[in-house]
Amino acid sequence: MKPVKVYIPQDSAALSVGADEVALSVQERAESLNIPLQIVRNGSRGMLWLEPLLEVESKDGRIAFGPVSVEDIDALFEKKFWESREHPLCLGLTEEIPFFKKQERLTFARCGVTDPLNIEEYQKYDGFLGLKNALKMTPQAVCLEVRESGLRGRGGAGFPTGIKWQTVLEAESDEKYICCNADEGDSGTFADRMIMEGDPFSLIEGMVIAGYGVGAQEGLIYLRSEYPYAINILEKAIQIATDNNWLGDNIQGSGFSFSLEVRKGAGAYICGEETSMLESLEGKRGLVRSKPPIPALSGFMGKPTVVNNVLSLTTVPIILAKGASYYESFGIGRSRGTQPFQLGGNVKQGGLIEKAFGLTLRDLIYDYGGGTRTGRNVRTVQVGGPLGAYLGEDQFDLALGYEEMSAGGGMLGHGGVVVFDDTVNMAQQARFAFEFCAVESCGKCTPCRIGAQRGLETMDKVIAGEDVSENLNLLDDLCELMKDGSLCAMGGLTPLPVESAIRNFPNDFNSDNDSRK
Amino acid sequence: MSAFDEWSDNFATHLYEKYKNTKGALLPILHEIQDCLGCIPHAAVLHICDSLNLSKAEVDGVISFYHDFRRENDGRFEIKVCRAEACQAAGSEELVSYIQNRLSQAETQGTFRIEPVYCLGNCALSPSLMMDGKLHGRVSPERFDRLLTLQRTESA
Ligand SMILES: Cc1cc2nc3c(=O)[nH]c(=O)nc-3n(C[C@H](O)[C@H](O)[C@H](O)COP(=O)(O)O)c2cc1C
Ligand code: SF4
Ligand code: FES
To answer: Domain A331-421 has what CATH class?
Structure first.
């Protein structure tokens, strides 16, 4: 009898709630009962509240069970979960679960479906199609295709990827680099991690295409040290890709050679800023560089360098596989394609939602998220990481797109959405924004280095009820100074969470015990 | 990873050979030393200055810039607790107070150290923490107690 395939993720979110223990327990039980089950450790489907999510292959598609714990294994075997849907944890067909079914998975098409390190399976699911197409095109045509897809950098700034590549292509140098920004420091975000753990070959493929498109021979992936599982999987994937000649010399007989290396970060948020990352890669303190020169002309080791976020690079293969116009047909306004949104914090159904730009925060929070985990009212969401705005109920109908969000006083950033219920104290959140900036500032410029510290002290006074209106005025000035005078967006955007909190939730800042009243 | 557990000439030679062609080798070298020894000892700094042709101030400057690197290993076991927003929204501040309280009790006093981190990429299963390189999500006080017991029996 052919063994039945059972999928249990090795994604670190799944592991964080016991996926390894579940896999081990299923394996042991199947062996002792002599039931032919083959366990595959896949990536996560992104329905993280259901992790560990166990799936069983069936003729209709995969059947999901979750969240499964070791204590459920006895009963699952009693109900013969590999052939019956009777156990109460059964959720039916995975791809019919509304949270999943409503999505548009382009970048994450394979994530959770395949065994991340099975390169044959990667190809069976359209892997390396984009690269094969690219290698038949001229580098110029590759850059043009990316440009026409409308892809914009997913790391936060939203700069058009094709234009960046074009600059590097045109820069004259016999040495060029592709640096992948896998620092993913923004709180509330985990899409880079998920795809590196769940579909690492897509990042490799995207980087080889980038290398071919701009004429670079070497790539570096700057991966944060907080992601040990991702580092491990990616290093293995690089080895496998090299063994199969998808990396290294004369890739698939094309005459193009490209090598790839993972570099571990060292716990500094600012090293996600591209020039700070380059300094760090060169072995220095992560001090932000002043621009110009831009990294595209003078980047790693002073050579022309493409710096792209993980999601920008992992989206490139499908653009080259299906064509720019296919990708461009998704989205709204100047935000083309899809965005992998990340829903976290106090939310009932948290996880990864890849969807064309244009849905609203309300869709995310309620249709996908199902409201808060605590069952209380949603009071605010922070969108776009620690430097993003705190938005209130009256902004939940904003369309999620780059321009649409900034017109509404927010910022899309890397697509993280953190939900808070009505117990949140917004003065504390504003205080934290300064505290975070004080801890993580690179220290190069005064408005940020000193400003964050002053902001923190001033917020403490506001919270203690000392001269509240005077101190709020002071904060106002300080925020203007930080916005105008900071060298990078760390200092320049710290005022965004602070000011949005004050503007949208003024009552949290009007302490009753204002000493002057 | 290499199997060195103290700073030695062999370790120095190993590092030199392994990284002599690496561009920007300082961070990879520091990571490997710290992964093996739990810190970057003074002798290692001197060796790095020599082999990479850097001044001591430059190497010290790099070590102090990054949260990951330590000059001394106090032998305490590190627990990285996420203090960022998605974990705050799910009660991480209460969890931190609980952990602090718990670790100050006699039987665990002085054996663990809490290190704040800002996001472990597990924001949908918050609050999160990392112990011994292992990530844990949806950590409640009860779950923390179980993890602690497990850790103590493993390291005992
Ligand atoms: C303080 C700060 C932190 C940043 N952190 C990241 C990060 O963790 N990951 C990332 O891809 N981009 C980050 N960025 C944006 C990068 O500077 C850069 O715009 C991006 O890596 C370019 O790639 P993209 O065009 O593909 O987005 C950060 C920027 C700033 C100012
Ligand atoms: S704004 Fe802050 S982080 Fe950015 S360069 Fe200035 S001091 Fe460094
Ligand atoms: S904010 Fe805590 S894991 Fe992301």
So the answer is: alpha beta
